[in-house]
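[job 0412] stage=fold_complex status=start
inputs:
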Amino acid sequence: MISAQHTIAAQHTWLAAGEASEHRGLIISLFAVFVAATLVITVWAGRQTKDAADFYAGGRQFTGFQNGLAVSGDYMSAASFLGIAGAIALFGYDGFLYSIGFLVAWLVALLLVAEPLRNSGRYTMGDVLAYRMRQRPVRTAAGTSTIVVSIFYLLAQMAGAGVLVSLLLGITSDSGKIGIVALVGVLMIVYVTIGGMKGTTWVQMVKAVLLIAGAILLTFLVLLKFDFNVSDLLGSAADNSGKGKAFLEPGLKYGATGTSKLDFISLGIALVLGTAGLPHILIRFYTVPTAKAARKSVIWAIGLIGAFYLMTLALGFGAAALIKPAEIIASNKAGNTAAPLLALHLGGVDSNWGAILLASISAVAFATILAVVAGLTLASSSSFAHDIYANVIKKGQATEKQEINAARYATVGIGAVSIVLGALARDLNVAGLVALAFAVAASANLPTILYSLFWKRFTTSGALWSIYGGLVTAVGLVLFSPVVSGKPTSMFPDVDFHWFPLENPGIISIPVGFLLGAVGTLLSKEVPDAEKYAELEVRSLTGTGAH
Amino acid sequence: MATETPPPAKHQLPSPVEFTEAQASAEFGELRRAHRSFAFPLTIAFIAWYLLYVLLSCYAGGFMGTEIAGNINVALVLGLAQFLTTFLIAWWYARHAAAKLDPRAEAIKSRMEGGA
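[job 0412] stage=fold_complex status=done
writing structure:
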């Protein structure tokens, strides 16, 4: 997700000096082991998937700790592993700013969203948004915004995945990159259609353990090099970076102009408010039996994600201290290969240990990508099947079997769409897509969730105004931002129709989403359904009648 | 995985009248107040603290660069402080919920489901 700003795509470089190709065999073997293991898990989980609650919510039988691991696995994308470490390696302190927004955001989920959602919903975000509203329009809106957020997020991961894996394997041809994107797409379709939420959850747990173990190992090796003296590590990083003390202060990446500072503030707001509106994160709370277990999952996730982001500091500054910046940039302009390079250097560039470490860390990055895309695909196909197919098209008359089948077809459809778009987007700047996913989640979903749960007066029109208003404002502003046109890094660098100066729309679109929800409610003559609100409020706080 | 434990028994949902009565009850009022008076101000506080940190990073470079010990400067300490406050708030909320929210929620839930 961090690929925001450090575009994973659009880089045509590869691991320095053919290191990758020497170790390619080992890397591919480890990838294959991971894929084989996850396929076994998937088939096993598939056998246990019998009804809708199994497919959508993993049978609701995971423990708080298991789900906390899976939430971490769902949230920490390859981009936050490779991206943050790389950003710190190249821009020092400014790389660290992201991890803070990504972590603090979890408190919104913990205090306001996770437990009420678990208590009152069944399978999707739409369950809660439409609870006391007219079902069809609100479900349609919730489904639309779920699919838009998930597809943008997915696309960014797929495009990033193609480029990253190609980098790690030393594949530079276009057909090679497209092949990787297609492989990732097919695997995610298999995980989700066969394994459903159970399979996806286990894949995410395995990934989280591998990622955290990899980070602990590298952090330990980095600190060992500096005799556990953090000040020395920072000093060497500053010296080796060639930027001196400025490397340890804010401003190297975002401090250039007034606009870039404003852009950072906008991104910061979107990050901190976006997480609690990301559908693929929200549906994870349905996999545990109670709200208490949902709370435990978030607390575990905060602990694990927090610890992981602290370790990325050591990885980033370690890479800055031990590897010449030119070597990192030569491998990948955005620094995305800093962590694998660090592994190689820590093990010894010409030694077997170096090769083994590099291969292991590369395999972890691959595992990370697969677990995240599976979660995203599941969120969007669940919402299509449960919100749009079952409740809008079939008006609530679909059988469970029809609904699950619809979800499986939707998975194949969404997977196919993302393979095509991911292949087309392989050389595009993915920054806008990820920033857009967070901004749309914060502008369209979060206001509607909070109003639905806590504002008695809120109505159907209010919900539609905030979802569509937030969605259109966020997407619209990005369309006319430098992400899409007018700059060399834009998607369409040769044309210029941008008039919105910032890359991230959050600073405007989030207040607009909240405001429109309130205005739409106050302007409508609709009388809120008091009985339904009583039901939602009592259920959301007490768990009465929870599924 | 704990798949051996049976899923929680499905209860008949209480009637709209029961929900409306429950919502109006003093007991539920206390639960709502205990949740909102904790969660709302704290949310505003941690978002304000986070924004302060973002603004300082953007506009107070000199202050943030002040060294405290060796190469460790104010920026790094404040960043780590954000981690620390996040961990502390999570722990604090878990304690608050276990002491003030769970018992009240349990009582209302078992009364409502017991009657159904």
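[job 0412] summary: Residues 86 and 335 of chain A are 4 Å apart (CA to CA).
[job 0412] exit 0
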